[in-house]
Amino acid sequence: xxxxxxxxILRVNLSTRETRVEPINEAWARAFIGGRGYATRIIxxxxxxxxxxxxxxxxxxxxxxxxGGTVAPSSGRxxxxxxxxxxxxxxxxxxxxxxxxxxxHAGFDMIILEGRSETPVYLWIKDGxxxxxxxxxxxxxxxxEADKILRSxxxxxxxxxxxxxxxxxLSLLANVMFNAHRAAGRSGVGAVVGSKNLKGIxxxxxxxxxxxxxxxxxxxxxxxxxxxxxxxxxGAGLPxxxxxxxxxxxxxxxxxxxxxxxxxxxPEAGKIAGETIRERNLIRNEGCASCPIACGRVTEIKxxxxxxxxxxxxxxxxxxxxxxxxxxxxxxxxxxxxxxCDRYGIDTISAGSTVACAMELYxxxxxxxxxxxxxxxxxxxxxxxxxxxxxxxxxxxLGKLLAKGSYRLAEHYGHPELSMSVKxxxxxxxxxxxxxxxxxNYATSNRGACxxxxxxxxxxxxxxxxxxxxxxxxxxxALDKTLQDVTAxxxxxxxxxxxxxxxxxxxxxxxYSSATxxxxxxxxxxxxxxxxxxxxxxxxxxxxxxxxxxxLPERLLKExxxxxxxxxxxxxxxxxxxxxxxxxxxxxxxxxxxxAKLEELGLAxxx
Length: 607
Prior knowledge:
Elements: E1 8-13, E2 18-23, H1 26-32, H2 35-46, E3 60-63, E4 78-83, E5 90-95, H3 99-105, E6 110-114, E7 121-126, E8 129-134, H4 143-153, E9 159-162, H5 165-168, E10 176-178, E11 182-184, H6 189-195, E12 198-204, H7 214-230, H8 233-241, H9 246-252, H10 274-280, E13 282-286, E14 296-300, E15 310-312, H11 316-322, H12 331-344, H13 348-363, H14 381-393, H15 397-402, H16 406-412, E16 421-422, E17 425-426, H17 436-444, H18 457-460, H19 476-493, H20 505-516, H21 522-543, H22 554-558, H23 574-585, H24 595-601
Parallel strand pairs: 1-6, 7-12
Antiparallel strand pairs: 1-2, 3-4, 3-6, 4-5, 7-8, 9-10, 9-12, 10-11, 13-14, 14-15, 16-17
Helix pairs in contact: 1-2, 2-19, 2-21, 7-20, 11-13, 12-14, 13-16, 17-19, 19-21, 19-23
């Protein structure tokens, strides 16, 4: 390998307690870069798409990209790739922090986790050496508790990956937490880790990450950092107010899903907005490895019943899901619910949407009052916090149902249509009735409803990429495809999506090329992203997904927004957008990639 990569993959068989080091496959690295792409290629080769996600046959890959551990801006990302427990689709959850670079410095580009330990264990990795240690004393501990113990047993300055009680109890909403409050949050990846009896991984290393062309690389890095500093979003808005600055912006568009998407305008949005968090709760900003943006928040509740509680966030998606989606404007309750999600190890997006679904089920009489210890009513902060506790602890029948997510909860009570999800994964903080492009993105996302698989909001709400009329259907298929392909390649490098607020594909390709020595222009970078997207699609097709799964909740297709700037809007032309999207992708009308497209991408032999 020329540069960027350490050239080593650590394979850990938890059933046999055997570990071995394997070399990076250079052909796969060139074709799929690293991170999300390379890990998906391994999953495709080694995991039956029809496997039970919580069985021994599933595998989990903790993956970095070739820019991780370098000085490239915002290069602290780590991918957790597996077959998702929530969706049954390919899952690749992306987290920030410092774990990914630390893994590189410890000597490895990826960890493949397979099998299942008979008793709870954790991994301790330091400068190429690996230990599988007993973790029975950690089982049942919250994420923050386990993080502290692991650091005391290994190295206080080590980086950690931990699951909480939700992952141990196989909640389909369980996530994987890095450094206690950075989450690989979607698709139930924490449940898959928990099914293997793996409590966590601790890494520490001092090995450098070399780049192939140092002078050219640094020139590209300096240029990228300068552009990010000048960008009004990445250089000003996000550092000042964090991602929750979007609460007021999206609400003004009339696109903030409210009360389980019964509406898309929240009159009390200002009470939970990023500006208010900065004024009332912010302790300091926090950045990931090599990040000039520092959009993360460290906060504290300074008064009221939760006084003295502190932790990370809430970020925009968490703030919305636990706030507007549940009709809750009590900021202290929203922040407390966010802290609890982190401690239990629960995805905040799915958690908030599941509570919102429960509130609608309860208010409509579908959940009998005797089955909930408190009234689950929209707008009630106490109900929100208690519902998250029930979800995390699973010590009641309703708590166990909440831990399965909104689709299975609503299905249990006979009304699956009240789950605001795609492929059983709850959709994020942008209402597709107000932003048509994000609706198509939710429908076609390979991991279930997702905004960071093609962030069309950047164009539809923030004027990026030349802007796009949010209420028009025309051109959204092309926009979605382009952004999905860019993101697939971007995720594979180890760079954060937020860099696209200031950088273009040329900047990304320049850093990747000079770091690795694999010459890659804009067209090739986009082609790699398209190759990764199609590989994920092939996995899902073999798992049983079809065009019928590329859809949106019935509410978004038929029930108009009631108030705000998007009043009266529905998603009326989803099928038309899908037809155009499939055509642009070189797929047939059933969403199956054609032989010609797969041959073009070098994937024909994988059918």
